[in-house]
Amino acid sequence: MASNSSRLLMALIVGAGIAGAGFFVASGMERFRMADRSIAVKGLAERDVEADFAVWNLSFRRAGNDFAEVQQALAADREKVTGFLKTQGFQDSEMEARPVAVQDLLARDYAQSNTPLRFNGSGQVLVRTSRVSEVAKAALALDPLIQAGVQFSGDGEGAGGPRYQLRGFNDIKAPLLAEATRNAREQAEKFAAEAGARLGPLKSANQGVIRITGDDGNDHDDGRSRTKRLRVVSSFEYELR
Questions:
Q1: Which residues of the chain have pLDDT under 70?
Q2: Rounded to an integer, what distance in angstroms lies between the CA atom of residue 189 and that of residue 199?
Q3: What is the number of other CB atoms lying within 10 angstroms of the CB of residue 87?
């Protein structure tokens, strides 16, 4: 009889131990779930800014059967281009007139004897300036040079036209990221309120990459657009309480 009572007592002790262990396991899982309550949000910020620097490569060409004539024509074209730029208000410090180059097409390894014009030459005048508006205006005023016989390479605006840059990017970066951060927090606070919770501290953040495109519909910045569209998507994770 005593033996049966001992076995019963042992069973009760073991059962109580198992129940207690189950309680602590369940309690631990609950704390784990509570500690893991969080929300992941993305903050978006966009801004259109004007370019602050322009690089304009005015490239021109000549061809002929006399080396000296081609070279002289290119030198004259270079003078016309620099003269035009000065009338547009550009200073010598903003212009770089590069040496002309003339190539003998018959001297090439793969030359063809039926080449109509033996010599092909090119010249360049490079403009670098922060006066973006003046460059854009001058790029639309090349007709007199074309009428004077200057043969521009590219689409008529001097090797494809000016390229516009945003060199003050770092001055815009911080405000843009701050805007994305505010946008993300507003979304997180709204979600927490709707869920009947309070927004806790920030667990992790990824500021993302600021993407720069033109305002002409292209998905990349090829430099042609004066207006740059900056866009960033930042990721954040907040605790919920």
A1: 1-36, 154-160
A2: 6
A3: 11
H helix intervals, the chain: 2-35, 67-87, 132-139, 143-147, 169-194
Q: What gap in Å lies between CA 25 and CA 118, rounded to an integer?
A: 90
SS3 194: helix
Please say whether the beta carbons of 81 and 125 come within 8 A.
Answer: yes
- Distance (Å, whole) CA 227 – CA 64: 41
Of the candidates 53, 54, 56, 55, the residue with the CA atom closest to the CA atom of residue 158? 56
Amino acid letter, 63: A
Distances (CA, A) of 164 to 35, 132, 169, 228: 50, 8, 13, 9
CA distance 95 to 82: 8
Contact 124, 98 (CB under 8 A): yes
Q: Which residues pair with 163 in a beta bridge?
A: 55
Distance of CA 136 to the CA centre of its chain: 21
Q: Give tens-digit pLDDT for 10-24.
A: 554 445 454 444 444
**Cα 175 to chain centroid, rounded:** 16
Q: How far apart are CA 159 and CA 120, in angstroms?
A: 17
Q: Is the distance from CB of 55 to CB of 127 less than 8 angstroms?
A: yes
Beta bridge partners of 129: 54
Take residue 171 and report the two structure tokens written for it. Answer: 């001055």
Length of the chain: 241
